[in-house]
Structure formats: structure tokens, C-alpha cells
Write a structure and sequence with these properties.
Four copies of one chain form a homotetramer.
Chain A (H helix, E strand, L loop, with lengths): L6 H7 L3 H16 L41 H14 L7 E5 L2 H15 L4 E5 L4 H10 L2 E5 L9 H9 L6 E6 L11 H10 L5 E6 L4 H5 L17 E5 L11 E5 L27 H38 L4 E2 L7 E5 L3 H6 L3 E2 L4 E5 L6 H15 L10 H4 L18
Parallel strand pairs in A: 2-3, 2-4, 4-5, 5-6
Antiparallel strand pairs in A: 1-7, 6-7, 8-9, 9-11, 10-11
Helix pairs in contact in A: 3-9, 4-5, 6-7, 9-11
Keywords (chains A, B, C, D): Decarboxylase, Lyase, Pyridoxal phosphate
Protein name (chains A, B, C, D): Histidine decarboxylase
Cofactor (chains A, B, C, D): pyridoxal 5'-phosphate
Chain lengths: 414, 414, 414, 414
């Protein structure tokens, strides 16, 4: 084992597997309730499909061509793709597949974009997911980063400035629908306006909608920023294990056109090699198809509404005890808060920017009870305890750094 | 749905999910027994772990650093990595992770190689898996293809020729341990000799050992071609859903050194971003750890021996009825046969080169009974049926093309 | 035949040719009267020349050198070239040839421009014909697109901005005299002013005058925007099958100078290889020479005036029934209208931007009777029909989308 | 008019068109009989279709999608494409269109090849048609010329040498099926063997089969060199006005796969913009469909056989009078002869290399009578005329240069 690993970890490496499994089970059971910083919905019951879990399902190649072997779930893959593509108003001739996660989807989308425009410059914001920076490095694409507003949304004036400096080259723009830290949404209609004004018609707009793509697409286009194919996207990726609650990481990539060159049938597998990787997990399409089929548009829409209500409740409760908390927009599941004291973070798993700002992502499955308990714990931690002179108020506040005023946006909502 | 899909498929797209699931179950049940052309072992029972299947396990980031969230299985990932790395004689300081499949492993290995040698030329054979060609295209690496022998093994003289034309540039060589069509193994000791002779010290040798890596590594180094780190590999990838029998596609990448530059902790997840993709399936490490732990070296070694015995039996039985069949080497699970008549292929799923050559991959789980039934079916198809004058012998032989003699290798074994 | 073709089409593929010819004749006869969206003049009678139609006429090589074989019509080609070159005020030493269409002319002109200035940047507007984008892609020329006004004319300020960013490189500017959608005309005098102001003397200005070149050139230079050689063009292409009414697609390219380097005589054909393609259609020069010879300047000028009068009549009639309709300038043959209801478009073939805007091109041959019938059909479609309760007004209006006000130009004329 | 043109020519430029037309008719009538050096078949009667000649037929965009306007002949285009694609054993998914000539087809094919392999090197022989050199110059593709044998066929050893020097780059190989001067045919099976031996799998083989594609494809593959899709072609172009006898230059391009990226429907025309140029002549598809439909495989096969018989007759007759004459192979229509004396060439239009070698192309339509008359004229010219002492034998023999022995190939046939 690598020398960087802790001694603790090394120790358990050598125990019997059975003993380690017991500890693993205990840890997971305890952790789920307090894991509120990462966006995996926990309200979907997959029990119906567990009978398949022990059998190899391998979706080799293109989802639209079954291939030689029978142990695949492409029929279910096509069902979930159709649901998502229609929701995202994809044009006739759209294509897509279920990926191992949003990162693979973004890498494949940018690979297709580079094949279409080999000399393009790629533009994305400083709030974009790290997978975007990794993808352009892998693909060797020239890149310009775009500034964001204080809340993490793309600064469209800055986009105009940098694209305006490279009008001799095609543009690949990566917009984010739901940034990791604040769930900010880059508005595709603004991106389109910038590119139109600069006459950059050689363009590919990819949307990393891992977090917020499905929930926003369930709203009327008038109620939400531009994010889908009708708003100007050429490709879009969502996560399958966030709002859709799949029990293993996965994603869905949809593109406006079928990848080219069409590679033809590969004799070995009998299906065209159009995806980024070869063998693909056949369980995740089954799980996703089951979820969208059972819930439908109405069920998903209702889940999103309930989760947002919990998020709104959280902001009000936290504000009630005087702790800074806000949401970027009324559709956000993410509540940004000042990083709580360490004692609270020892119990509750939050995520954050590593400095003064943390967040909770109110995916379906987080209850009002959980947020009430969290607020109570925070309140307790903030209250001076006269019986214990060793702990001062200041100690209890963790870093104690005040959130800079400029990071509390004017548009923040509850 | 895309217009290229068959009408049949479209029809079932609109059925109820429950009805479709029933048909799916029937299809899978019937297909398993006859699916002998693709290398997924079917003898591993994963029932013990099914209780985890419905729960999100997400191994974000580096396997050696747990990160903030608790719902991961990195402890198991480290156990299976250690087992595999030791088996492959990886040096101190090795690194690795469980991937979504061998394709991701190869792409990441070549990405690391390009980061180490940005001006390298990549060499691989015409028998290499298509994932290699895709990886070098994604990575924009200059490439030279190397000829193979008639049996699909790298032509080392040709390697010397082409590397000799580019001694001013570092070399990335991809060797295959178990090609898709014939299970040929490129011998790393020969590759090393070529590179040494040409004094190309700036080198990265990656081994795509998806199919044969583990079974060959279980043998003594004297009994098998060079393939592991002690034989000269800088990175090596194996499949988890082939010999190791995982029920969903996965792979294991091992590299001789930890990725450089070390990216440091990512605040959001609390684990360094060292892998190709972000969120990673946490179920496959658990399944793989369970398998290697339960079986151990002895159990895996015994399984491999038994499967090879079945393969040898198959060659003898097929030769017994006069049907051309051979194995590339005595450790091969793959039996290459002349493509059988269509009536046989309607029942048995084989893979092949799309022309006159097909193969069966005798992964653990294929029984003597299955091969006997296959041989009987083939024999029946070849026997003239006097009671049915409509069918002649010639009709029954499918393409009827004789395997060209030069494709029957001198080294072929039974 | 390719799988993408409709079943209907496939069916007729297998009928007897005679039967298919009969259906073809019927279709064409019926279609001509209603085909008002595409700019092919239909008033020229070519009967005199039909006796040549069955004989191979092949204008291999340069129009100025006859070559070895006699079966060419270069004498006629030179006659029509001279007429057009004089009309366009081409300088002494001009050159040209009859092409297979304006697209070939633009490709050849830009090829000559790139040979003159290998490091040039090419500038053209977003309203330019797709053949320009294709040509620069074929030629691998760096490109910057220039914004247009709402009416589709080049935004000269934007041209100044982008040329100003690349003053270190020669400029190839493509101006359009008659854009496809609105018949906007880029004014060469403005283009010249921009290039002069920026001191970009290394320039090549190509004019894609496919639609409007001849009719505008028949006017006094004071009455029309700058478009010809005296206004700054280095090359200019017109269509032969639009205003000039040739019965097969063709074009005329004129350049200010003879192609350089002069390739000398090619022994095989006996004529220099100065054109883009080799064998060239010898019928179209004959047809074009016949047309310009018979009509002369006066005849062509009169035809253009009559056609513009019909266009003006159409705008007044359409406005009379309240349907939005406008022309870009008083010399335009193109009337832009709000896209009519589907029932109207089922009968009349219009062209458009695929959204809310369509157009009619009033080439010579369209009669007042046709436009009156069209307006009557439109009026009927807009009138509620009380006797048929199944059809509401709203249904009858097709997309019903109102033309956005910003697309109605201030300069619009009737 | 340009100063390079002869004074004679200028004079006729100013005559009345009617007078010029009369002279033109006379010239054509007299010339046809003696125009035996250029390969246009003259035996096809197109009278049935002349009624269409005066009407605009414009096949805008892709042949498989009709588009908005009705005045096209795409149905006939699809018929002739299907006939040719089947004859050339094109794979499922083939695509093609009727071009303005073979030059356009080659340019488009190489454009598609460069899009597929942007870094490719293009290889073609010194006997290739000048359109190939022009295409690679237009496309800016790196190029290596390959030596030919004395007869004009590709030297495959030299191909191996030069491709072997660039194995790090994809290869575009242009093979010629019927070179201009000797009708030599580059054997695709040899080309494939070279590329296979060098492991150059990233390849695009284009066949310029302008002259001999159809006649050779009518033979059994065993009787002729490799030239079609089953022999390894990725694209292939034939002429429509040579063996197929169309009365205006045209060609047919077929590719193994549909062009990508699929550009989608263009609103303006309603058909994808997949061809090199935009508006395309709709008369030539009609003429070609009529020819292949009326003649069918049998008729075309018989015509080819008859024409070859005339060619064989010519070689025997010429040899009979001692004049050097040979054919490259028994399927050739081209008879290469020593360039005859000037007095013969004043009457008979030959083509040649501009030095000592000329040729006659025995396309269908040339009669035994014509060849007998030609041989008689040649014999007369070679016979000393004692009554005219001013003319010596040497004068009568034109250049008098003897064909170098190495240019008379061992394989020459009669």
C-alpha cells in the first residue's frame, strides 16, 4: 500500500473481510442521517430491482444498436434517454447514452465538440466543476476562464470580452446549471445573446447540468433560466445519482446530433463504438428507467417542489437563530451557510469552499426533522456554556471568519 | 428516440415497464447458457453483497484518501488494489484505482504517460483493443501502428523499425496481454529489449491486460510472457467483469508511481482529484474485494486451471469432428474456430472478426456440458439430413470459407 | 439506397422509368406556377437552342484558349463573359469563366485569393450564403464572421473592429450583393472605406452577387450600393439560373486579373488548367450568350424593372390585407413576409428562415395574377369559416408568431 | 476581352450571334467524326429527354432529401446512384451524388478524407489526373507523389517506401482506374496489401475511376484489377460523359459512408448541405438514369465488349502497317500510338503527352469504318510521294522521335 495512507487505514487493511464488513455497515448506517452536504437523493426505493444486482449487465457500444450479446439493458436505456431528451426539448435526431457519471458526459461532449471544431477555444467559468478543467486538459483544447458574479453565475460581460478577443476561432462554451458551491445557473439565453452579438456562429454550447438539470427542466421555460436544447444547448449532461437517486454514480449525456463519424458496426460486439468508453454498466439504465417510469413527470415535479420547500424552511430556521444562510434562487436545493463550528461539523457532513462558506444540498430524502436537529445542534454550539469555563464562545465558532458582505447576493431568496 | 432504431425496438419502448421487465427477465435467463463468445465469468456468487445494492456508494477522488462523505467503499478498494498490485509485482510507491472498465484505465494511463512525455509517439498493434485508438485520438498523441504476426502478437521487428524512425521522441508503447480475437500476448521482455537496443530510455509501457492479466499473473513468471511491472510495465489495467466475474463492468488500473503532479486536497470532496472521472462506483470495489478475499491466490489459480482445461477439451472435441479450432498458447481461454453455420450461431452467441473466424472464451462458469452440447449442435448442422432434401451440406456450412492456412499458427496448442 | 430515405421514395425507385417519368412531368407542370420562393426566372424561352441539347459540349480548360477538341462552346463563353465583365466595369486584363454555379465561383475566387495571400484572414457576415463557410473550410482559411444589421446588411463598424484586430494579416472580405433571406446588399464603398482607414492594403474583396449582381449592375452606380470592380471588387460571381434564367444551374465568375501563376498549356487538352474543375458544361455558355445577346442591356433592364414593379405590387396587396410584408430596398425582388398558415404553404412553395419569416422572390416570370391568387388564398385562410366549426382562426394561422418588431427595418420600402 | 486571346477569336466575338451559331453548327458537324482522342461515347440517343432541356431542374442539397422546391430530379438521381453503387459493391450505408464531373467528385472525396483524417498525407502517382494535384493544393494536404511503371501503373514498391516513411500519419491514397494517357489501372488489392503490411489502418482510399470505372466493374472481379468498395475503396468517382455518354460533363461520386457531420436540414432549401457545391444540375441525373435504365447491365456490358473489339482491331490494323500501337491491358479502350505526322493530326483530333506518344480512346460510337479511314490516312502520309519532291519522309513523320523501348510494356495486348 502506498506510503501516503494513514496508519489507521493500513491496520484495517489486514483484518478479516467479514469483520471489516461489519464495521462498514455500522459506519454507513450512522452516516446516512448526517450526510447532508452532498447531493444524493435518498428517497428512491430500488428494492424491486435488487434481484438483478448479481447478474452481469453490460451495455457495450451504442444504446440504439443492441449488438450480439443478450446481457444488456439497452431497451431501458432508450426509455430513460427518451424521457430525458423530451424533457430537455432535444431536437429530432438527438442522441445520448447513460454514462458512468457527469464527468464522463462532459469529457465526451467536449471530445465531440473538438472533433467538430478542432481549432476552438473553450470558455468556462471559475465556478465550473473541476471535471471541465480536467476534460480540456485531456483534450488539449485552448481555454479561457470566465469570471463569475459574487454568487457564482457566469459574468456575461466578461464572456463577451474574452470571446471578442478570439472571433477568428470557434467557441466551445461550457455553461453550468447548478454550480457545486452555490447552485448558480448560467443562463443559456444570455450566452446565446453574447455569441450572436459577436457573430460567432461556429459554436458548441455544452451544459453541465449534473445537479440541477432535471429539476429545472421540470419547470416551465418562463420560470427558469435558459438551459436546454431549445435555449441553445448542443450537448447536456445530468447526474443519475443526485436528483434521480440512483444507488451508484451514473449520468445521462444527450447531444443534439448523433456522433460522427458514424463508426459502423464493430464485428466483435455488433454495436457501433460511439461512446467514450467500451463496456458500460447495464444496471444504471435499468435503475434510472425504473425511477422515471414509476414517478413520471408529476412525481418528479412534486419531489422537486417538496425538497425546495425543505430548503426554504432551512433558510428561515437558520436566519431565525441569526446564522447567515441564503439560496441563490428560489429553485435552488443548495443552502449556503457560514461554516459552522467544528463541533457541529464533527456530527454533520457538510461540503464547502474550504474557507468560511459551507452548504447543505436539500435533495429529496432530507427531512424537516433532520434540519431541525441540525439547527438545534448549531444553536447549542453557539450558546455559551457557563458550566464549562474551558470553552469560550469564540472557540465554539470554528474559524470565526465573518462571511464577506459582497458574497451575500442581492437576489438571495428564502 | 433516434430514427435509426428498428421499428421493433420502438414498439417495446412504449409498453408498460412491468411488461418489458418480464420479457427482459425471460431473455436474460435463456441467453446466459448460450452466451459463450464474450468473456464474463459466471461462477461467482454475489448474493452476500446484495443487501448493499440499493444504497449509494460513491468513491469520490483518490482511493487512498477517504474524503468528507462516509458513503464510500475505499477501504475495500484499497484491499483489492493491494492484492492486484502485489500479484503484478508493482514497485514500492505504486498507485491505482478501480475504474468503470479497462477502457477508462487505458485512457487514464495514456493521459498520465502524455503528461510525463508530452512529445511522445505512441506505438500499439493492429490487434490492440479499439479503446487504445480512441484514447490516443482523445489525447491527441501522435501514433504509429505496429504489425502483428498472423496470430495477433506484436511483430517486435516492426516495433524496432518504427521506433527506430523516431528515436528523437519518447515512446509510449501499449502492449496487450490477451487480444480480443485470439488472446495473443505481447511479451514485455521483447518490448524492453527493442527499446533498450534503440536506447529509448524516455519510455512508458502500458499493458492492456483486460482479459488475461490476472490469470497469467497467477502463473510463475517463467511460465508466461513478460507482462507485469517487474517485466517493464509502467501502468497496467485489468477488467473486473471478465475473469474476476463482477456483475457490472469495471476495471483496475495500477501505475508504478503516484500521479504527478499530486493535485492536493480538493476542499469540496476532501479527496485529491487523481482519477480520470469524479464520482466513482463504490459497489464494484466491494464486489471485487469480496471475490479476491474469499478465493485468494489459490482459489483464483484453481479456477483458471479448470477453465483452461475446459478450453483444451473443447479444442479436442471440435478437432474430433473435424472442425478447425486452436488456441494461441496453453494458457489461453480463447478457442478460435472457423465460424460455424448460421443455424448454430442462431442458438449460440459467438464473437468473431466478422468474417471466417469466430471464438469462444472459456471463462470460469462454462461447463463441459455446454461445450458438449455446442459440439453436438455443430455436428448435427454438418450432417446431411436425407429426410429433408431441401437442405444440402453446403447450405448447412454457412459461409463455408476455409480458414486461410496462414492464420493457423505454428505455435497453436490444444 | 441509403436507409434514411423515406419508404415512399424507395417504392418509386423500383417502378419502371417510363411510369416514373410520367409522374415527374405531372409534378413539374403543377409545381411551376406555385414555386415562388426560389429565384429562378421563368420568362426566357430556350427553344431555339434545344437542337444542341443532345450533343456533348465540353469546355475543357481556359475559356480563352480553345484546346484540341472541337466540341466546345468557348466562343459563346467569351461573348457572355465580355458582356458581364463590361457591365461590372472590370479593368483591362480581367478574366473569368462560366461555372457550374455561384458556389464554384466563390470557391475558386477564394482559392485564388488564398494563393495571392496565403496568410489572410477571411471576413464575411452571418447573412452570407452557406457556400462561403464551406469554401473557407475547404480552403483551411482563418475566418472571422461579421455581424449584420437587423436587415442582414454587413455591420461596417463591426467589420472595422475585427479587421482592426488583425491588421498584421491580409484581408479577404466576402461581400454579398443580395443575401438569400432579405436580398440585403453589402456596400463595397463602405468596405473599402473600412479597409482604407485601417491601412489594410493587402486585400481581396470578393462579391457574391449570385442573386442581385446583374440587376443592380444595370442601374447607374449612383442609384445602387457599391458592388462592382470600379467599386473595389477583386472578384465577383453571379448566378446564371436566377435572373438570367438558364435552365440548368450555372454561374459566371469574373476576376480583376488573370489567375496567377498561369499554368501554361496542358498537352492533354491543349488549354490551360485555370478553372476550378476540369471538364465544364458547354451548354450553359451557349444558353447565357443567347440570352444576353438577344435581350441586350435594354431588354435586361426592362425585365428587372417589371419584376420590381410586381414585387412592389405584392407588398402593397399584402399590406392591404394586414399581413406583414416588406422589401429591403427599392431594387429588391425579394419580399419578406410573415410565414403564412400551413394551408397556404401547402399550395405555395415559399422559402424562409425556418421560423417566423418567409419570402417570395419576384424573378421575371411571376405574374400579377399569381400574386393576386396568393393574396386571395392567404386572405381566405385568415378568414373565420362559420360553416366549419372544427377549424378556428387560431388553427388557420399556423405558427401565428408575430414577426418581432426589431426585424422590421427602418429602411423598408414598398 | 483578355489580351491573351488570338485576334481571330476576337473578330468573331463581334459578329451577330446568328452568324456565329451557323459557323458553330458547321464546325461541330465536321468535327465529331474525327474527334477520336477524347473519351466521350457518342452512341447514346437522348432525343426522348430533349423536351425537358428548356426547363430549370435544380437538385439543391442532398440527393436523399427532396427539399422544398419541386423542380428537381432527385428521384432519378437516386436510381442511377443505386445502380452504380450496387455495381461497385458499395457497403450498406453508402452515399453518393451526381457531380458536375469527376474533378468535383475527387475534390469532394478528398475533402471528406481530410475531414476524417486532418493530419493525413496524400499519396498519388505521377500518372494521376491533374485534378488530384489541384484538389490537394486547394485542400492544403501534404502530398507525396508515387512513381509509376513505364506503362503508368502505380509502382507498389515505391508506395511502400513512401508510406513507410510516414507511418505516424494517416494515409489518403488516390488510385486511378484508367489513367488519362494509357488507361493504366492501379490495383486496389496491391494498395491494400501495402497498407496492411505497414499497419496503416488509418486510411482512406479514393479511386479516380473517371474513365474505366463502369466498364471494369461490369466484369467479374476475377477478371480485372481490384477497384471497387469490396476491394478496399472508401470513395470512388466515375465520369458520366465518357462511357455513359451524357451530353454534358458530369460525374458520379459514391462514398462508403454518409458524409459527417450530418448538417441537418437547411431551412432555406429543406435539404442537407452535404455536397461540395449548392445548386446542382438536375438534367444530368435524368440523362444518366435514362441510360442505365434503358441499357441495364447487359446493354452496358455488350457496349463495352464491342468497343474493346474495335480497339483490338485498331491495334492489329496499325501494327499491320508497321506503326507502333499497343493497349495496356485487354480491357482497355485506349490505344497508345506513336504520334502520327502533322498532316494526319490536322484531320484527326488525337490527345497525347505532347511528345512522341498519342492515343485514341475507343469509346462506344467509334466505328470500324472510322479506324479504317484513320489507318488509311496514316498509311498515305507515311508513303513517299515521288511526284512532290518538296516533302521528305522525315518531314511527314512529325516529330520523328522513336518511342523509347522501355515504354512498350511487356504486358501490352492487342
Amino acid at each position: 500500500m502506498n506510503a501516503d495512507v494513514d496508519a489507521d487505514v493500513d491496520a484495517s487493511l489486514d483484518g478479516s473481510l467479514d469483520a471489516v464488513l461489519v464495521g462498514f455497515a455500522d459506519r454507513l448506517r450512522q452516516a446516512t442521517r448526517f450526510n447532508i452536504g452532498f447531493p444524493g437523493a435518498t428517497d428512491i426505493d430500488h428494492t424491486d430491482l435488487l434481484s438483478w444486482a448479481g447478474r452481469l449487465l453490460n451495455n457495450v457500444g451504442d444504446p440504439d444498436v443492441d449488438g450480439l450479446a443478450a446481457n444488456h439493458s439497452k431497451l431501458f436505456e432508450r426509455r430513460v434517454l427518451r424521457f430525458v431528451a423530451e424533457l430537455l426539448r432535444a431536437p429530432v435526431g438527438w442522441w445520448g447514452y447513460v454514462t458512468s457519471g457527469a464527468s464522463e458526459g462532459t469529457l465526451h461532449a467536449l471530445y465531440l465538440a473538438r472533433r467538430r471544431y478542432p481549432k476552438a477555444v473553450c470558455y468556462y467559468t471559475t465556478a465550473a466543476h473541476p471535471s471541465v478543467a480536467k476534460a480540456v486538459d485531456i483534450l488539449n483544447v485552448d481555454t479561457v476562464l470566465v469570471r463569475t458574479t459574487a454568487c457564482g453565475e457566469m459574468d456575461y460581460h466578461d464572456l463577451a470580452t474574452v470571446v471578442g478577443q478570439h472571433r477568428d476561432r470557434p467557441a466551445i462554451v461550457v455553461a453550468t446549471a447548478g454550480t457545486t458551491l452555490t447552485e448558480a445557473v448560467d443562463d443559456l439565453r444570455e450566452v446565446e445573446a453574447v455569441l450572436d452579438e459577436l457573430a460567432v456562429t461556429r459554436r458548441w454550447v455544452h451544459v453541465d447540468a449534473a445537479l440541477a438539470g432535471i429539476p429545472l427542466a421540470l419547470l416551465s421555460p418562463d420560470e427558469r433560466p435558459g438551459l436546454d436544447f431549445a435555449d441553445g444547448a448542443h450537448s447536456l449532461v445530468i447526474s443519475g445519482h443526485k436528483f434521480l437517486g440512483a444507488p451508484m454514480p451514473c449520468g445521462i449525456l444527450v447531444t443534439a446530433t448523433r456522433p460522427n463519424p458514424a463508426p459502423g458496426l464493430v464485428p466483435y460486439s455488433g454495436s457501433p463504438d460511439t461512446t467514450l468508453l467500451g463496456s458500460r454498466n447495464g444496471h444504471t439504465p435499468l435503475l434510472l428507467a425504473h425511477t422515471v417510469d414509476r414517478l413520471g413527470w408529476e412525481g418528479l415535479h412534486a419531489r422537486a417542489g417538496q425538497a425546495r420547500a425543505v430548503a426554504g424552511h432551512a433558510v428561515r430556521r437558520l436566519s431565525g437563530i441569526g446564522w447567515p444562510a441564503w439560496r441563490q434562487h428560489p429553485h435552488a436545493f443548495t443552502v449556503v451557510i457560514r461554516t459552522p463550528p467544528q463541533v457541529v461539523r464533527d456530527k454533520w457532513v457538510l461540503a464547502g469552499d474550504g474557507r468560511d462558506s459551507s452548504h447543505i444540498v436539500f435533495m429529496p430524502g432530507i427531512t424537516l426533522g433532520q434540519i431541525d436537529e441540525f439547527v438545534a445542534d448549531l444553536h447549542t454550539a453557539l450558546t455559551p456554556r457557563p458550566t464549562d469555563p474551558r470553552q469560550s464562545i469564540v472557540d465554539g465558532r470554528g474559524s470565526g471568519v465573518v462571511v464577506p458582505p459582497q458574497r451575500v447576493p442581492a437576489r438571495a431568496v428564502t
